Amino acid sequence: MASIELELEGLNCAGCASKIEKFSQDLDGVSSANLDFVTKKLKVQIKDEKDREEIVDSITKTINKLEPDVKVVDKLNLGKDHNIHGHSHDHGSIHKEDLIKIIISGLLFILPYIFKIEGTLRFGTYLLSYLIVGYEIIIIAIKNVLAGIPFDENFLMTIATIGAFIIGEYPEGVAVMLFYQVGELFQGMAVNHSRSSIESLMDIRPDYANLVKGNETVKVNPVEVNIDDYIVVKPGEKVPLDGIVVEGESTLDTSNITGESVPRSIKVGDQIISGVVNNQGLLKIKVNKEFKESTISKILDLVENASSRKAPTENFITKFARYYTPVVVYIALAMGVIPPLFFNGSLKEWAYRAFVFLVISCPCALVISIPLGFFGGIGAASKKGILIKGGNYLEGLNDVDTIVFDKTGTITKGIFKVTKVESYDNYSEEEILELAAYGESYSNHPIGRSIIEAYNKNINKERISNYKEVSGKGIQADIDGNTVFLGNKGLLLDNNIHVRERDSIGTIVYVGINKKHVGTIIVSDELKIGIQEDIKRLKSSGIKTIMLSGDNEDTAKKVAELAGIDKSYGDLLPQDKVSALEKILKENKDKKVVFVGDGVNDAPVLARADIGISMGALGSDAAIEASDIVIMTDEISKISTGMKIARNTKKIVTQNIVLALGVKLIVLTLGAFGVATMWEAVFADVGVSVLAIFNSIRALKVED
């Protein structure tokens, strides 16, 4: 599967963006297409690389018809120039020529009022004023009709204003076009302001790297730095690439990645990730990832690609917009024709009402503000160290009924220490710890590592043979010719060994040798600091909490009680966690179920949940890939923050829908009864769009 990425510089028409996206999706050879109106990027997945140029050319021609002033840049094939006009015309900026046209047209518009001009000269003055401000819109409308793309805002404004001239309403025809162009100017400014706010929120990309070359350093683009190169990061600079600190020590400001203001200490030998800011000391770093694979690059790609997973509300509005405009246009046509023909109505009066409908039939306020709202919410979350992979997951947080937690590393710290050793049948505690350390010598599991640390002696691996891990139960190995079993109760029972059961909040490792249970080791893990308050905050929102654990049922239950979690399941193998989650999903099929784990080990359960949240992903590629929402720190409190951002975003999106549809419905109704004017119709179009766009910007702001 090959990719096409086009940047559409100057794209500010949301309706056109929707049409471009649909056209791209329907092309032969295209698997999927997504146009992010916020970042102005069109990403297309194609089935065969050989069709690339043909598909890009087809998309470019369509864009040329819909938005002639948009510049198309092929991001993945910069050698190919798809610039339509050779310049970028960004409607979000105030251009001198636009202002001049509006001012001249406005002056001509008021001349007949000031000098009481009448007759042909009056008509000519208004016509000249109209053509100066509206000729571009008329030309685009004609091109689109000839290309078979009617029902865009250019066509609707052209028909409505020319119609006003035909029925003798010259001032209104000019005024509506003038007001519309002024509104478009403000709308473009509002869109660009919103985009700039989002971009500044995500301004974490490093601009350069200080590459060490011999005895000097050279400023280069981070993409030019290779693995095993050395870079220098001065105080106040962003770390441009992931690597290992080889010289110096400092503290790091990680707030732009994690949302936390507390600095992190860094010294020689520590892993350092890109995007954080070096506070004080000079650091020399050996790069271990290219820029495209670095943490900062993955975070930026994740946030930028979030728009490809649209929220249900966004999908509904997109479909609604496709039907809304044609329906209103046909109603306007019927309104302008049927009463004069069949009910002896006034042609001028009913035509005017029809033109009001045409002006208001563009759904711009909805198709612009809704994506901006969701993207703003995703941007706000990322600033808090919460990476949400799509608007669907952000909106889904509003419907969460149950949160299921993994225990180790999520509810507890995941830092294990041997707290007790018991021995039986003439074995000493030292001998039990030695057997366990030898048995765990090939293991990378945290519990195994804690036993080896507690033993703290050299291990002669020649004494070990026939090493075998038993999935979900423990380890079997021959040590000095004796068969040793280390693990949970199930492992010993499977091998017909009677178990002297122990009760503890810690993890219990039973030690068996030659068919006898000879010792027990207790490895304790502590609850994370503040976990009780975090769980209490979630439960106060009406959330049910459940914990899954591989520990025995009693241990799991005690940990859950300490943390304040409603229910727990213990003695679960990895595959059992999936089964337990599926049972919970069936019990809560009308609501969303979230699973919270600590990364790749929980990948199957994270994938099965309605929404998977991975914890503590700072620098962890696996955790970033494994889940739908990534929390860069180990803080459960971030879940509450994410849900608060989701509620705030949903509220803003709902406000925009009610505002846009409400005002349009009111003006449509008034227009049908001949009360609303075309001026009011223009406000219901571009005026409401500007208000909705500025309202969407509020999604960027959220308090803890």
The Cα radius of gyration reads 33 Å
The portion of residues forming beta strands comes to: 15-25%
Secondary structure tally, helices: 23
Distance between the termini: 42 Å
Provide the structure class.
Answer: alpha+beta
Numbering strands along the chain, what is their spatial order in the largest sheet?
Answer: 14-26-25-24-15-22-23
Q: Tell me the major beta sheet.
A: 7 strands, mixed
CA-based shape: elongated
Which consecutive residue ranges, at least 5 long each, have pLDDT under 50? Answer: 79-92
Report the helical percentage.
Answer: 40-55%
How many strands appear in the DSSP assignment? 26
Number of domains: 5
Average pLDDT level: 88
GO cellular component, one term: plasma membrane
Domain HMA: 2-71
Main location: membrane
Keywords: ATP-binding, Cadmium, Cell membrane, Magnesium, Membrane, Metal-binding, Nucleotide-binding, Phosphoprotein, Translocase, Transmembrane, Transmembrane helix, Zinc
